[in-house]
Amino acid sequence: MSAVATAAAPNQNQQEDGGVTQNTARVFDEVLLEVKDISLAFGGVKALTNISFDIRKGEIRAIIGPNGAGKTSMLNVINGFYHPQDGTITYKGQVRRKMRPHNAAKQGIARTFQNVALFKGMSTLDNIMTGRLLKMRTNMLLQAIYWGPNQREEIRHREYCEQIIDFLEIQAIRKTPVGRLPYGLQKRVELARALAMEPELLLLDEPMAGMNVEEKEDMCRFVLDVNEEFGTTIALIEHDMGVVMDISDRVVVLDYGRKLADGPPDEVRRDEEVIRAYLGVGH
Amino acid sequence: MFYREAGQYKSDYASDQAIFPIRQDRIGVLLIFLFALLVIPFIATNYLLNSILVPFLVFSIAAIGLNILTGYCGQVSLGTGGFMACGAFFTFKLTTWMPEVNILLIFLMAGFGTALVGIAFGIPSLRIKGFYLAIATLAAQFFLIWMFTQNPWWTNYNPAGVITAPPRALFGNFYITGIEATPVNKYLFLLCFTAALALVAKNLVRSALGRAWMAIRDMDIAAEIIGIRPMAAKLSAFAVSSFFIGISGAAWAFMYTASVEALAFEVTRSFQVLFMIIIGGLGSILGSFLGAAFIVLLPIALSNLPAMVGLRLPVDLIAHLEFMIFGALIVFFLIVEPNGLARLWQIGKEKLRRWPFPY
Ligand SMILES: Nc1ncnc2c1ncn2[C@@H]1O[C@H](COP(=O)(O)OP(=O)(O)O)[C@@H](O)[C@H]1O
Ligand SMILES: [Mg+2]
């Protein structure tokens, strides 16, 4: 609903929820990731057609569009989960060949999912600790012995995870199995796990979907803080236009697998085609 | 004394990450172990040692092994019997080929050999899951037993196809296999060996590797996206699991039965160990022990308890009862409490911690 309101009535002031506002004058020059002419189809269904855009180092980049527009597919392409039939991806100056998600992880790309993808049988803490796996070095034999190098490594990484736990204010649920947590907290734990990877590029797929206003505000604050304090580049899919306008530096708009618009939020908001697309699908 | 953790503040992460973070648990486990080590050997009858404690320990090792693969890494396996047979026959071949090498080392070598076999038969798990993987491991089970029965080389051309444990000492004349080995010796060795193996298993599952296994179990796609290589995680689970199961097969053949044929490791053995971890608790080392104890004790309880209350049941009825109780329990645990006896124990402890207050 709010998507319509903001897209259709661009002159309306939507800072009313207050608190979280991005400085819109930030400038970013260095390209971290560039996708070029990406096309992806599933059988006859074209999920993405000739999509090109870039993500600059340090920015918060929003990807918006109606349901089925191809936003999730785009993230899946970026982290190697889907392989596009056409197009190239340049990450940190290198053209990427076909790669598996764990290679993307190794190169510093972390993500969260539209439908929470936590490890249900593990505690919050263990979930976050899995995010450190790529940074852990001790071999199987030392792990079997545990005491000594392995324990020192466990403690070192535990300390890092505790910082994230403090940062995201989830101290009280550290030992709780995540399956028992309410949805909003699960989303937060998933963010924590992604942060534990110390990513350079963080892909967030609808991190605020299904949250109440208060939870949304918290999440917005966390996203901004992550971006500011760790300098993490963030690509964010979000339906709430108010949120997108508030926190993103640049927005790319997808519709039916095509790119409709690309630019700073207030420019995109005034774009005729964008307004039509949003009204057209009857949101 | 109350069972409480109040007042036990953890000042550092090391003690928070301990195996038994609560002091009462630590003391309890230590006391049980000391009792098993220092008292039981003097008071236990040969029957208790040979027919209850030794098989309990042997099965515990197997259950820990299968629990690593199935409970922690989520890969179903019906090949446990086949891997136990590997451990038994590898041990036999190695120790008859190199009689001078210490039997403990031979057991470990047989375990590593079985780990390699486990990796080979784990490769299908990279492609298939669940039911289909179960069928693939069943094929491994049949293939392995067939190989050991068909090829007389494995039994050193024994006409009956039987391997018999030669006398081997752990040190001096502390014999743990063969006719010189007393029940107490076997029991003491197995007790310490099992404790050490359980510690290794616990250490692995609370470290990076264990978390990678559980991540694959809970959601393999998300695991891959945080950088876990599914192949490495699954195959390492197959390897470690088979290592344990191989050692348990060796201990079965050399210390429990002392002489054995490949058919002792038929598919019913696979199911038996699977039932242990379902009843004891998937993804729990403690559960592996509870499940093993349960399955060893149930038939004995069934054949003795009715007699003790003056009831005389025919033998075949007892056998049927055993099946029915297993069946009912497995259905119960699968549906109601997938975390098994270990979870029930934990719930009990939580209740105890709050006692006498209801909340
Ligand atoms: N794995 C898949 N198999 C088949 N079709 C898919 C798959 N993933 C996405 N699609 C299709 O691609 C289109 C875009 O989907 P998606 O990227 O999830 O959209 P959004 O995230 O923008 O809502 C949809 O038509 C969807 O049905
Ligand atoms: Mg989506």
Automatic annotation (TrEMBL), chain B:
<feature type="transmembrane region" description="Helical">
    <location>
        <begin position="274"/>
        <end position="301"/>
    </location>
</feature>
<dbReference type="Pfam" id="PF02653">
    <property type="entry name" value="BPD_transp_2"/>
</dbReference>
<feature type="transmembrane region" description="Helical">
    <location>
        <begin position="76"/>
        <end position="95"/>
    </location>
</feature>
<dbReference type="InterPro" id="IPR001851">
    <property type="entry name" value="ABC_transp_permease"/>
</dbReference>
<feature type="transmembrane region" description="Helical">
    <location>
        <begin position="235"/>
        <end position="254"/>
    </location>
</feature>
<feature type="transmembrane region" description="Helical">
    <location>
        <begin position="313"/>
        <end position="336"/>
    </location>
</feature>
<keyword id="KW-1133">Transmembrane helix</keyword>
<feature type="transmembrane region" description="Helical">
    <location>
        <begin position="27"/>
        <end position="44"/>
    </location>
</feature>
<feature type="transmembrane region" description="Helical">
    <location>
        <begin position="130"/>
        <end position="149"/>
    </location>
</feature>
<keyword id="KW-0812">Transmembrane</keyword>
<protein>
    <submittedName>
        <fullName>Branched-chain amino acid ABC transporter permease</fullName>
    </submittedName>
</protein>
<keyword id="KW-0472">Membrane</keyword>
<feature type="transmembrane region" description="Helical">
    <location>
        <begin position="187"/>
        <end position="205"/>
    </location>
</feature>
<feature type="transmembrane region" description="Helical">
    <location>
        <begin position="101"/>
        <end position="123"/>
    </location>
</feature>
<feature type="transmembrane region" description="Helical">
    <location>
        <begin position="50"/>
        <end position="69"/>
    </location>
</feature>
<dbReference type="InterPro" id="IPR043428">
    <property type="entry name" value="LivM-like"/>
</dbReference>
<keyword id="KW-1003">Cell membrane</keyword>
